[in-house]
Design a protein that fits this description.
- The protein has 161 residues and is of the alpha+beta class.
- 48% of the residues lie in helices and 30% in strands.
- It has five helices and seven strands; from the N terminus they run αβααββββαββα.
- Strands 4-3-2-1-7-6-5 form a seven-stranded antiparallel β-sheet.
- Helix 2 packs antiparallel against helix 3.
- It is elongated, with a radius of gyration of 20 Å.
- The C terminus is likely disordered.
- This is PH (Pleckstrin Homology) domain-containing protein.
- It comes from Paraburkholderia unamae.
- Keywords: Membrane, Transmembrane, Transmembrane helix.
- It holds the Pfam family bPH_2.
């Protein structure tokens, strides 16, 4: 949580952290391992060493990209806002005050529902919707955001009145 911790405001604390799921990256990791194994098999047969190296390196790059996506995804709910950061080269950071979040939607497949992972789509007032992919326990995270919004709402009403 390097990015999230570096952006905390005075008096702000982390209430909940969302973590990426290894299950969400399962197909990419499986494909990468199959490519590396196929490269080793072709290499041991000795028929085409160049294609063996190509398959192995492609699998290695895909595996590295999967791990990099897992390491660079950060999602946190503080007592004042929702902070998300993901990506290394094309980095996307989202910081929305709790009062500005208009919708928080969960998208998951049948497998994602069984294994408890999915994408969280956050839309804020005057901000485009942002999808945070492959988060573990998205339903619980959404529940905590809604509870934090409900706790913040009376404070906002007192300030207005």
């Amino acid at each position: 949580m390097k990015y999230v911790e570096s952006t905390l405001l005075p008096g702000e604390r982390i209430v909940c952290e969302g973590h990426p799921s290894f299950w969400a990256m399962g197909p990419r990791i499986t494909l990468s391992l199959l490519l590396m194994i196929w490269g080793v098999i072709i290499g041991t047969m000795g028929t085409s060493p160049i294609s063996a190296v190509v398959f192995f390196v492609a699998g290695l790059l895909l595996f590295g990209a999967s791990l990099l996506a897992w390491w660079t995804t950060e999602l946190a709910l503080t007592n004042k806002r929702l902070v998300a950061n993901f990506g290394l080269i094309r980095r996307r950071a989202v910081e929305l005050p709790l009062g500005r979040i208009t919708s928080l939607k969960i998208e998951h497949s049948v497998v994602g529902r069984i294994l408890d992972y999915g994408s969280i789509v956050v839309a804020g007032a005057e901000a485009p919707a942002v999808t945070i992919p492959g988060i573990s326990g998205p339903v619980e995270f959404r529940r905590l955001v809604l509870l934090a919004q409900a706790a913040e709402e009376p404070v906002a009403l007192r300030l207005v009145a």
